[in-house]
Each structure stands twice: as C-alpha cells, then as structure tokens.
Predict the 3D structure of the following.
Amino acid sequence: MGVFVRMNNVISPANGGFAMLTQINGLHHVTSLASGAQENNDFFTKVLGLRRVKKTVNFDAPEVYHLYYGDELGTPGTVMTYFPFPNARRGRPGAGEVAVTAFAIPKGSRDWWADRLASLGVKGIEKQDYLGEARLRFQGPDGDGFALVEADDGRAPWTGGDVDVDHAIRGFHSTQMRLNDKGATAELLKFMGYEAQDKAGDITRFALQNGNGAHVIDVETLPQAPMAAQGAGSVHHVAFSVDNREAQLAVRKSLMDTGYQVTPVIDRDYFWAIYFRTPGGVLFEIATNEPGFDRDEDRAHLGEALKLPSQHAHLRDLLEREYLEPIRD
C-alpha cells in the first residue's frame, strides 16, 4: 500500500535551536485510498472537473493503479492521487490523519458548486463559514472528507472538462489534520517554515509566506478522539513541494539532524520523494517539482496510456489482463 515509516522520538526544533527550513513551497500532492478505480476516476474528472494527468501503478503493489488528477500539467499544489484497492474496506475516521482536503475555487462560486454536486448525487454537502472563508464541505465516493473554499487564487485551472473557467478548481487550498495533541506537530510545521496564522475553537491555521497557493495547513486538536484506521477514503500521506533534488537533500539532512527518521530518496518517475512520520501520526512526504508528469507523455495526452515504472514493465500483459480494471474515460 505504499511507503510506511515508523514513528520515532524526535528532537523539538524549537527547543534545539535549529534553523527554520526555507525550501518548502507548500503542498505538492495528497495521496489517498479508494475502493474502485472507475468510480474514483469519474468523481475527479466528471464531478470535480480535474484532469487525469497520469495512469500508472503503485510502485510497491503493481497490481493496483496509482491515479493522478490535477490541472493541465499536474502542477505541484494541484494533484490529488489515489491507490484504488478493489473492494477495500472503508477507513475509520479519527485522530492521526488528514481529515479534510480542501480545493480553492473562485469567489462567488460556492452556490454553483453546491447545485452541481447535489445534481450529481454527491453526499454530505454542507455550506460553512470557516475562519472567515466561504466553504462547501462534501464527501467523496468512499466517504473522503473534502471542501471547496472560495479564494482569490490566480492559478490557471484545467477547463478541458465541463467546468468553465469562472468556477473551475484552481488547485489545493489546504489540508486539515486531526490530532490528539498538536504540540509537537505544530513545532514541526514551524520548523518547515509555516507560521501560526489564525485560530477558531479546536482549529489552528498554519501558513507559509509566499507559498505556491497550496500553502495552508489546518490542525484540529481533539484529545479524546480514537486513532484513525486507514482504508478506502483515508488519506495515505500528504506531500510537500521543493524545487529540486538539491533542496530536497537539504531538507532531508535538516530533518534527520533534528531526530526524524527519513527514508532515502526514492525515484517516483515524476518526482523524487522522501518520507517521514510526524509526531501526530500523519505520514509526510517531501517531493521535488522535477521532472514532472510530461516526462513520458505528450502534454496533450497526459494520463491516457498506462505508464509503468521500469521495474514493472515486464508485467504489463499480466497486469492489464488479470489485475487492472479497464477505466472508461
């Protein structure tokens, strides 16, 4: 099911005198689990109007797809990715997970989206005013927690589907982590360059200055909440963007110097990745913006063909014949 990293005892950057990281731009991608590839594909392309920018497989379980959705090119900060395990049991919500993934939409478009989602049978639709923002909460096919947030966002959307430019999703706005205790995770976020920006009830907002548009992290503190159990609808990990491998190596060294156990650099074909477990239990990844999703496909045809990592190329016939359900676009 992908990379898992053991939790470790960490040195508090705030107490250890470590310099704040400056290489992180904001979110790169968010990866979740699903129970079916076709339903997942239809939800993101036909309901939310995102582009499927890559159809590949889980590096650690090649019999399972890895599907990527985002803007036209899969720009870091726009990409939602999924491992659809056929008929997977739903996850149990709780602490130690990303509870809500939020996308940015243009100001004044919430009502349009509420009508659209309702007409398409989406569940859990709820209008909210949240930290001064107009938000629309809703659920994905597996009970995934999502929100659309009205924002002044200059990023160009994908409009190749049936959502026009005046309403289309611009990319991620934020993620909301649900934790029993925010203390050590808050110190980690500050070490990563985030600053506490706002607070309302159990929610504390952290944001980067001059981020990539997807640079907000909300932390919900619920001391009595049971720990989450991963399954379909759960976020597997959240990835943060750095420009290149040099920046990634600098971040890796700094994290390890503070006491975090960080994986070696792993080549994911479209970016390089490192992973570490946060004190609150959420798995973080640091991913490079290079080389991008057009490294092996023409930009006009991103996400159309099944792309396999080199170590699994010899399995193509077997995977397509026995494991990977055909996806109807």
In short: Residues 1-8 have pLDDT under 50 and may be disordered. The chain has six helices and 16 strands.
